[in-house]
Amino acid sequence: MPHVLIVDDDVNTREALAEITGAEGFTVAVAGSIADAKEQMQQRRPDVVLIDLKLPDGSGMDLFNDIESRATTEIVLITGHASVETAVEALRLGAADYLTKPINFRRLKGLLSRVPRTDDLKKEIGELRSELRRLGHFGQMLGAAPVMQKLYNHISRVAPTEATVLLLGESGTGKELAAKTIHDLSLRSKHPFLPVNCGAISPQLIESEIFGHEKGSFTGADRQHKGYFERANGGTLFLDEITEMPIELQVKLLRVLESGTFMRIGSNQELETDVRVVAASNRDPEAAVAEGKLRLDLYHRLNVFPLRIPPLRERRNDVELLAQHFLDELNAAHGASKVFAPDSLSSLMNYHWPGNVRELRNHVQRAFILSDQVIDAAALTPVTTSQSPVGLTLAIPVGTSLADVDRKLIYATLELCGGVKKRAADILGISLKTLYNRLEEYGPYEGVPKNDDSTLHSSDSMH
């Protein structure tokens, strides 16, 4: 039976927490001070520690370093003096979550329900993950390069906690797969994982999509709609391209992250949600803050545990592993048994892959379609022109702002593609909707033909 230690100097709070945790199937120990808590931990290792921030002999966060089994012990900070700074600091120190007084017992029960019940299960899961990592598999991610092993180590540490994660990396590096892996390795894995591309939803609809709306709340709202925060309750919400979210909506996002409550459009009833947020951006978030694209307070709330996803050019030894994996997927999907010719994969190693793993996947799929039983080097060799790859020929002076780099890269890619926006979006690794948003922001480019085949359809708006 799992064990919980409750550390609070208020007798009534201790008794209420003890009753709740006992009813959820935990054995319970209580302490009124840091000194008492240390004695209790010496007698039995807790699976969960509920710690009040204000204690007679110090701060509850002072106890964090005395908890030896941090990897298998959930730490929850309880405070009547909530602030973003306190929450962020607690999460950075290793807390799984924090609760404010008066305590939301429904949220506490949800947290307790995700605690593994046996040490054997924890050990078995840990051994399986170690073996898969050695083989280059980690959750839904693939790669054995040292930079990937370092990333896996960070994910394995943050996934079991409730910390908000900010994924940073170029387009096509696999940020959604990283987010899904964090979810799969967390205590929320049996609950929903919902990805949201903030750049692919119309600014007029995104609030409704995220928070929901009531019937009749606006023209066309002919029924009640549950938003992502409501549908992801208990699970993980992945907010991709977070810097594309309208600035006025970022205020409401910050509120739900801090309070765990929100309201549907057209309603004045607050709804509770227990959702872990993983956000991602292919832009420098600090530059986005400076440009007014991302609120500073929201950035601080999201940046609890930042993770950089490395580009494919920094993990070249993974190219063959990934190419074979994509071929295996295509063979399984089409009932085929195509193979790579001996030494054919060497043609992929020297290309710099500006579109990263997504570009490699598309390249293998093209070679699969064009080849019969054997995929040779000719089919696999990346097609380049005198202007391609763009990243090798586009001159960017040192000191250029990131916004100007982004604009120049988009215009150069459009010129390379003859103004065909769908092709440019594929190369850049962004959705067609996001490309249109960027062009609207940066203004028209005379070097791109006005007539192209990039009519935007709803099916083009997501990867």
Automatic annotation (TrEMBL):
4-aspartylphosphate: modified positions: 52
Residue intervals of the Sigma-54 factor interaction domain: 141-369
Keyword Disulfide bond (UniProt): no
UniProt cross-references to SMART domains, sorted A to Z: AAA (SM00382), REC (SM00448)
Keywords: ATP-binding, DNA-binding, Nucleotide-binding, Phosphoprotein, Transcription, Transcription regulation
Domain Response regulatory residue range list: 3-116
Membrane-spanning segments: none
Coiled coil: none
An individual GO BP term: regulation of DNA-templated transcription
Xref: InterPro entries: AAA+_ATPase (IPR003593), AAA_lid_NorR (IPR058031), CheY-like_superfamily (IPR011006), Homeodomain-like_sf (IPR009057), HTH_Fis (IPR002197), P-loop_NTPase (IPR027417), Sig_transdc_resp-reg_receiver (IPR001789), Sigma_54_int (IPR002078)
Domain of life: Bacteria
Single GO MF annotation: ATP binding
Designated name of the protein: Two component, sigma54 specific, transcriptional regulator, NtrC subfamily, Fis family
Organism listed in the record: Noviherbaspirillum humi
